[in-house]
Amino acid sequence: MAKINTQPPRGTRDFFPEDLRLRAWLFDIWREVAQRFGFEEVDAPIVEHAELYMRKAGEEIVNQLYHFELHDRHLALRSEFTPSLARMVMARQGALRWPIRWFSIPQCWRYERMTRGRRREHYQWNMDVWGEPGVAAEAELIAAAFAAMDAMGLAAGDVRMRVNSRALLEETLRERFLGDHPEAFEPLCVVIDKLDKIGADAVVDQLADPAGAIRLAKPDALDVVALLGVGSIEEARKSAPSGSSALADLERLFTLLEGYDVADRVVFDASVVRGLAYYTGIVFEAFDTGGKLRAVCGGGRYDRLLESLGGKPVPAVGFGFGDAVVGELLGEKALLPELPRKLDAVVFPFGDTERAEAQALASNLRLQGKAVELVLGHVKPKRALADADRAGAQRIYLIGPDELSRGVARVRELRSGEERDEPLPARKD
After folding, report:
1. What angle do CA 400, 406, 410 make, to 5 degrees?
2. What is the mean pLDDT of residues 367-385?
3. pTM of the model
4. Closest Cα partner for 124 from 299, 309, 260?
5. All residues at 6 or more sequence positions from 281 whose CB lies less than 8 Å from its CB, including other chains
């Protein structure tokens, strides 16, 4: 028989108790912030219809699916939550009261090349607003993302949110470069989203590839890459079409962010486009200011997604905030908390004669809401005391022959060493 590999599949994780305590701590922050902002939690199956993800425009995510056929059904592990959310909205579209504010903490799967903070499975916090066309929704979401970072202990200068507008980029590029083939905009966004990964020269080559989907002239490709270097709204205004509504939305967003006191943590960055084809308006990504990690979170407006899936159009905006990258950042900043096991007490019967009373005592304490471990095996008192202390218990209840004869348990406070007797609870015969 072949030896069993005790490691999880590459790119995935086991969560031992100490790991799960950290995960629960992070999830609790996400849930608390979402609820504080008036959002309700939803979830969906981890297995989805594969066609939900099979979009056009050459997105990498399509090639990263864990997908399979079973009983003539083409299924996939979810690679992102937004398509599932869109399906759920479509199912109740006629009965929903707009806008809706939903959040989720799904596990997502992508078979991709792993780097620091990038895994093949990860959890992410999604917050989405459906039914609100104005940028007040974007401002609320960005404020929520920063509220979570604050709750984690990150300083205001540790993370910057980079903001751009796909709509503004689309207006500009279609006026200047894509007038005769506007359908090239979505694949163009997929290419320029790789700028940080493959560099400007490679992006120019792909934009100008005569056999590709975009087919820009080389000078135009160079101009497009130059546009991505615009670092302020003032500069963007110079190249924007006259009367641009997308530019007005961006300016309105920055005004709204001042009301949340986070405007100084947000910058305009024309290179942010997000690689997913369904984004239609403002897009944003948060990065550590040290520039060592990939995006901490990212999202944007996707007003046409429901329509592309066969539903009635509904404006929508949301973000995803992954656990892997922020875990790396918190570790680097020494902000991951020490989370000992939560154990109020250990109950230790010296032998089988005392076990029934020990069970009754443990049950009574548990009914009071205490976390209680009942020693199950036969160990010596010294070992029981050491194990209880190592487990982080506050106290240990010792029941030996003498205590049993007197109808008490000997209680030792493990921090102070103080001892006392407490009556054993009456047993139900």
Report:
1. 50
2. 96
3. 0.89
4. 299
5. 165, 166, 167, 246, 249, 300, 301, 303, 317
